[in-house]
Write a structure and sequence with these properties.
InterPro entries: Rossmann-like_a/b/a_fold, tRNA(Met)_cyd_acetate_ligase. This is tRNA(Met) cytidine acetate ligase. One of its GO terms (molecular function) is ligase activity, forming carbon-nitrogen bonds. Belongs to the TmcAL family. The protein has 392 residues and is of the alpha/beta class. The protein contains 19 helices and 8 strands. The protein has helices at residues 15-28, 52-60, 72-75, 79-92, 108-119, 121-133, 138-151, 163-177, 207-216, 228-234, 242-255, 258-262, 271-281, 285-292, 299-311, 315-320, 334-343, 361-375, 383-386; strands at 3-8, 32-38, 66-70, 97-102, 183-188, 327-332, 351-352, 390-391. Helix 17 links the parallel strand 6 (327-332) and strand 7. The longest helix has 15 residues, at 163-177. The two termini are 19 Å apart.
């Protein structure tokens, strides 16, 4: 059976994601589509809009055959490590292709970009570090170094100012660096951009726009932008954002000492003192973020930092999380179950369907993240131990 992999968040699953799954299956002639999906905290340092089991069910009802969880350490990481974890899991599951959406829409510029950067990586990294020292944020430093490289080379390169292109480049990079046999293919992103607000005249909207519309209005305002089954599922959900988690985060920041805050992943350069100062004077998450935002720290980097403080994820744990240790199964269709039965012995990582049967620090952090996500909903801990994989 020919399996194609996708790396997703589904925050929430919408019509654009449905298009992505259909095109991925068609372009690669796939019998199986396997989704590696983030759990309860996401790459931009946010709690997921809806819980991971509801998002798993959304995916399985709309074209995915298997959904596995991207461990917390990678799901909340910058693009290069987010990609590293996703590619490693798809390779372990024996996918023949990885299909990703991009603003670029063609794979050749990504391959040319990889060849150009790797061809003179020492100079590229030197230019990145020089830009960081000049005061640019790391993403802007990367773009500065990349612009210098592309102006000196002829050819068609990927536009790495676009969010999906950035992730796409790192998927391609990781396929090569991990020496995977997977083929990378890309599907043009259509109708709306990653950060776009709701746009008139189309039923394909960005997840960002959908979340904004729900929190500024109501769930009914976004019904046209997602499959009917998914809208029904969301009506049953408790929807989450940082406003819900902020009271607990604020308590943590005021309770911990500066040195305890500084032990968490991505907390650097003495910012722990600013975090505590802002927590004392900010009654809302927006106020808090406004007081800590600067040219040095992007909104996303700050949110990832706060996510790690909220979940207790430390620098030591981050160092240890070099590659995924397991495949955590969240759900499957009958077709997906047949693929697992036929290929399980070929998987290069252990398949975990029962959390209680697998002891691993990385998995423990995933379970901890779930418990703390549900804390804000006043739900009991231990959901990862009670929930079997979803079967559709």
């Amino acid at each position: 059976m020919n399996a194609t992999g996708i790396i997703v968040e589904y925050n929430p699953f919408h019509n654009g994601h449905l298009h992505h799954i259909k095109q991925s299956r068609n372009l690669t002639d796939a019998d199986i589509v396997i989704a590696v999906m983030s759990g309860h905290f996401l790459q931009r340092g946010e709690p997921s809009f809806a819980d991971k089991w509801l998002r798993t069910e959304m995916a399985l009802q709309n074209g995915a055959d298997i959904v596995v969880e991207l461990p917390y350490a990678f799901a909340t990481a910058p693009a290069v490590d987010f990609a590293k974890g996703g590619v490693a899991l798809l390779a372990a599951l024996k996918c023949r292709a990885l299909a990703f959406g991009s603003e670029q829409g063609q794979i050749e510029p990504f391959l040319a970009t990889y060849d150009a950067i790797e061809g003179d990586n020492a100079t590229f990294q030197k230019n990145v570090q020089h830009a960081v020292k000049s005061g640019l944020s790391y993403p802007k430093a990367l773009n500065s170094a990349y612009s210098q490289m592309t102006t000196k080379n002829n050819g068609s390169f990927a536009d790495l100012t676009q969010p999906n292109n950035i992730l796409g480049y790192h998927y391609v990079e990781q396929i090569f660096k991990q020496k995977s046999a997977m083929q990378a293919v890309t599907i043009p992103r259509i109708a709306s951009g990653y950060h776009d607000h709701i746009l008139a005249g189309t039923t394909i909207q960005s997840a960002t726009g959908i979340r904004e519309a729900v929190f500024d209005g109501s769930l009914q305002d976004v019904e046209a932008f997602m499959p009917a089954s998914n809208f029904s599922l969301l009506q049953q959900a408790t929807l989450m954002n940082w406003d819900v988690l902020y009271p607990t985060l604020r308590y943590m920041l005021l309770r911990l000492s500066p040195s305890e805050i500084a032990a968490h992943a991505e907390v650097t350069e003495g910012i722990e003192y600013l975090l505590q100062k802002a927590a004392r004077t900010s009654d809302t998450f927006t106020q808090f973020m406004t007081r800590i935002k600067s040219k040095r720290y992007t909104w996303t980097r700050l949110q990832r930092m706060l996510t790690h403080i909220y979940t207790g994820f430390t620098k030591a744990q981050l160092i240890e999380a070099s590659m995924p240790h397991y495949i955590r199964l969240l759900g499957m269709t009958e077709n997906g179950q047949r693929y697992i039965s036929a290929h399980k012995k070929e998987f290069t990582l252990p398949l975990v369907s029962r959390v209680a049967a697998f002891d691993d620090p990385m998995l423990s952090q995933d379970c901890k993240a779930t418990d703390l996500y549900y804390l804000a909903q006043q739900r009991a801990p231990g959901e990862d131990f009670r929930r079997p994989p979803i079967r559709i």
